[in-house]
Amino acid sequence: MALKCGIVGLPNVGKSTLFNALTAAKALAANYPFATKEPNVGIVTVPDPRLDKLVAIVKPKSIVPTTIEIVDIAGLIKGASQGEGLGNQFLANIREVDAIIHVVRCFEDGQIVHVDGSIDPVRDQEIIETELILKDLETMEKRIEKLNKQAKTGTKEAKVAVEYAQEIIASLESGMPARLANLNEGAQEMVAEAMLLTSKPVLYACNVDEGSALKGNAFTAAFDKAIENDPSERIIICAGIEADIAELEDPSDRAEFLEEMGLDEPGLHRMIRASYKLLNLITYFTAGEKEARAWTVKRGSRAPEAAGVIHSDFEKGFIRAEVIKYDDMVHLGSEVAVKEAGKMSVEGKEYIVQDGDIMHFRFNV
Questions:
Q1: How far apart are CA 212 and CA 215, in angstroms?
Q2: Of 34, 48, 249, 337, which residue is least crowded by CB atoms under 10 Å?
Q3: Are 326 and 358 in contact (CB under 8 A)?
C-alpha cells in the first residue's frame, strides 16, 4: 500500500524546499506567495536498514523498498476556505491525501518574507487549522441539509444521522478538529465517510535554521507548548540542511556532512518513521534469490490481508504463512539455519503480522 502525504502550510515556510530535498523533484521554490499553484508529486524511497541487512544475507537479484508519495500543496492563507488564494483548489488537494505534513516556520530570515509579516508558528498553525475547520463545517452543513430532508420522511436512520451530523458540527464550531473530537462511534463513521480534512492525521514539521536543527529554539518551544494536548507527531527539521544533503550523491559525502552538522541521520528518515507511526503502519519483508522486498500494512493486519498486498489471489487462496523473525534471520545468518534451529513458524489465517516479519505465503487458486 502506498502512503500519500500532503505537505501544507502558509506561503514561504519552506514547504517546497523541503519537498525538493525529500524527492529531488526540483519543484519551484521562490520567495513569494503561491510559487506553487499545481500540486507537485514525488515518490520517496523509504530507507530501512533491515532491508539492507536482508539483502546482504540473501543476495537477491533485485531489491524493492517500499515508497511514500509526497504531494507539495500550494500555500494556504487566511480565507482559503472561502476561496482566497485559490483556496478551494488547494483544499481539494488535501482531501486526497492520507496524512498531512504541516510545515511551520520556526526561523528568522530577513531575506524571506512572511505572508503575515512576522514569525509566529503558533499563529500560523491556528490559521491553517481554522481554514480546514471552516471547510469541514461547510461540508457538514451541506450534508445535514440533505439529511434533514430525509428525516422529514420519518425514517429512524435519517433522524439518527441528523443527530450525528449535529454532534460533528457542534464540535467543529467549538474549534475542535475532527481528529481530536470525542465523538460517538456513529459520528466517527460519518466523519470518515465525509472525508473531513481535519480528520486526517497530522505530522508537524518545525522548519528551523541550521543552528537549531539539533535542539530547536524559542519558536519550537512555544509551538510545543501550544500543541501539548494534541497527540499529533512533531519533528524538528531544517529544510536547508536537507536540501544540501540531497545535492550530495556520494553516500560517504553525505555521512561526512551529517557528522559535521552533528546529526545522526537525515531528517527525511525521521519524517518517514513519524509518518508510519502516524498512520499506524508496519513493514514486513519477502526475501529470496530473485527479490528482496519491503511491504507496508496496517498494524494489526492478519496474514491473509498481508498476502493480499502482494496479490489479491494470495489473499483469496491463502493456506498458510511461513514466518521468520527478522532478529532470528540476522542472528543465524540464513533461512536454512533458521529452519534447522526450529525458528521458522507456520501460521494460519488469524496470525497478526508483526513489524519486521519475513514471510512466505502458501496459497491455492
A1: 6
A2: 249
A3: yes
Residues in the chain: 365
User: What DSSP letter does each residue of 13-36 carry, written as one string?
Assistant: SSHHHHHHHHH-------SSTTS-
Closest CA to 64 of 312, 287, 329, 301: 287
Are the beta carbons of 194 and 138 closer than 8 angstroms?
no
Helix (H) / strand (E) containing 76? none
d(CA 231, CA 179): 10
Query: What values do phi and psi take at 31, rounded to 5?
Result: -90, 50
Q: How many helices (H) and strands (E) does the chain have?
A: 14, 12
Residue 239's Cβ-side half-sphere holds a number of Cα atoms within 13 Å equal to: 21
CA angle 38/41/44 to nearest 5° reads 160
User: Residues 82-141: pLDDT tens digits?
Assistant: 544 444 566 778 888 999 999 999 998 877 766 667 899 999 999 999 989 998 999 999
At residue 23's C-alpha, the angle toward residues 22 and 29, to 5°, is 80
Mean pLDDT, to the nearest integer, of 153-165?
84
What distance in Å separates the CA atoms of residue 114 and residue 105, rounded to the nearest whole number?
Answer: 9
Integer Cα distance of 196 and 204 in angstroms: 19
The predicted pLDDT at position 58 comes to 95
Tens of pLDDT, residues 30-85: 333 333 345 678 888 888 889 999 999 999 999 999 888 888 886 665 654 454 44
